[in-house]
Amino acid sequence: xxxxxLSVQLTIALLLILVGGxxxxxxxxxxxxxxWIGDGDTITVDGxxxxxxIGIDCPEKEESDRxxxxxxxxxxxxxxxxxxxxxxxxxxxxxCLHQVVQLQTGEERFDRYGRLLAYVWLPDGRMLNQLLLxxxxxxxxxxxxxxxxxxxxxxxxxxxxxxxxxxxxTKHRS
Length: 174
What we know:
CATH architecture: Beta Barrel
Organism: Desulfuromonas acetoxidans (strain DSM 684 / 11070)
Mean pLDDT: 87
Protein name: Nuclease (SNase-like)
Order of helices and strands: HEEEEHHEEHEH
Domain TNase-like: 28-169
Number of helices: 5
CATH class: Mainly Beta
Number of domains: 1
Low-confidence stretches: 13-27
Largest sheet: 5 strands, mixed, barrel
InterPro entries: SNase_OB-fold_sf (IPR035437), Staphylococal_nuclease_OB-fold (IPR016071), Thermonucl_AS (IPR002071)
Radius of gyration: 21 Å
Oligomer: single chain
GO molecular function: endonuclease activity; hydrolase activity; nucleic acid binding
Distance between the termini: 89 Å
Strand order of the largest sheet: 1-2-3-6-5
Structural class: alpha+beta
Strand content: 15-25%
C-alpha cells in the first residue's frame, strides 16, 4: 500500500513537470497586433505589452552615450546616427504597425526594464530583427548570447560591406 501511494505521487509529480514544460514552451510564442512603435527595436503588441527585439540595437533618436557603440564599430558619423534612428523607426512602422505578428522568446524572456525579449515574425514570414540588420538599420547586440547571434553577425557584416544604412560612408565636416 505504501509503495502504491509513493508510485501515484511520483506519477503525479512527473505529470506536473511535463505539463509545466509544455505550458512554458507554449508561453514562448505569442501573437498580437502591433499598436505602437517606440523606436526601431521596441514595439508594443496588444495583449503582450512592450517588446524589445532580441539581438539588435538601433540608434536612439537623441544623442546619447550609446552612440559610441555604433561609432566604434565603424558606423556613420554622429549626425547621421539621428537620421538612421528615424529611418529605423519608420521602417519598423512600415513593416509591422497594425499587423498581427508572431513573437518568439529566447532563453531570457525579459530585459531589466520588464520588456519581453523576442524575435518578431512578420505576417509574410520574414523576421523583423533580421530585416533591420540586413538594411543596416541596426547593429548586433553583442553583450549577451542568443540563438541567432552568429547569423546576425553575418547579416551585419554583409550590410557593412554593402554600405547600407549605418554603414554608409559619410563625409565628415571640418
